[in-house]
């Protein structure tokens, strides 16, 4: 029972590089979300999707793109990495207003 | 934006003490969830409260949903080192899905 799978677990980027954080879920959830968590802080919503082909911005969307071509996958793209994007990124999936299942997180450092 | 403020932000107590964490908002939620996050892991659901005034118990943890469904509290009795972690509340508000609170980081000292 995989749940929500995020890859990679760790990543170091140079300023200006681009990369994609992968997220996949096998629970047929319609909602998927990306959050960032800075040291000692709670979760801030970056982007979310209410179903395949539909995405929307959250609280802190600048510098990130998402797409949802299938129910299972919700990749997060960093277009041009900046040191301010150093954070731990969590992907989550759920059915509307029910328990959110989280991945293990991706720890990203931008130097 | 439906802001959920948690207090206190940080809490450090001795093993055996009692504590209460608060989650407050000016918005009404259809339900409210509490999560615990341990270092290096994603948050994991502890409980969901749905009805205004509802109280749920999970061993030494007691969760209460405010009558007006705008706030919630988490009370831990006789805290143990295993209770250490980040506690997050999350409010459900219709089609906008879940809004997470700012978090309370609890440290229980043996």
Question: What does the secondary structure layout of this molecule look like, with pairings?
Answer:
The complex is a heterodimer of chains A (111) and B (110).
Chain A: E1 4-7, E2 10-13, E3 19-25, E4 31-37, E5 44-51, E6 54-57, E7 64-66, E8 76-78, E9 87-94, E10 101-102, E11 106-110
Parallel strand pairs in A: 2-11
Antiparallel strand pairs in A: 1-3, 3-8, 4-5, 4-9, 5-6, 7-8, 9-10, 9-11
Chain B: E1 5-7, E2 10-14, E3 19-24, E4 31-37, E5 44-49, E6 55-58, E7 61-65, E8 71-76, E9 85-92, E10 98-100, E11 104-109
Parallel strand pairs in B: 2-11
Antiparallel strand pairs in B: 1-3, 3-8, 4-5, 4-9, 6-7, 7-8, 9-10, 9-11
Task: Give an overview of the whole structure.
Chain A has strands at residues 4-7, 10-13, 19-25, 31-37, 44-51, 54-57, 64-66, 76-78, 87-94, 101-102, 106-110. With 111 residues, chain A is an all-beta fold. In chain A, the strands form two sheets. In chain A, strands 2, 4, 5, 6, 9, 10 and 11 form a seven-stranded mixed beta sheet that branches. The model of chain A has no long low-confidence stretch (mean pLDDT 93). Chain B is mostly beta strands. In chain B, the strands form two sheets. In chain B, strands 2, 4, 5, 9, 10 and 11 form a six-stranded mixed beta sheet that branches. Chain B has a five-stranded antiparallel beta sheet with strand order 1-3-8-7-6, with no helix packed on it. Chain B is globular, with a radius of gyration of 13 Å. The mean pLDDT of chain B is 92. The interface between A and B is medium-sized, with 24 and 29 residues.
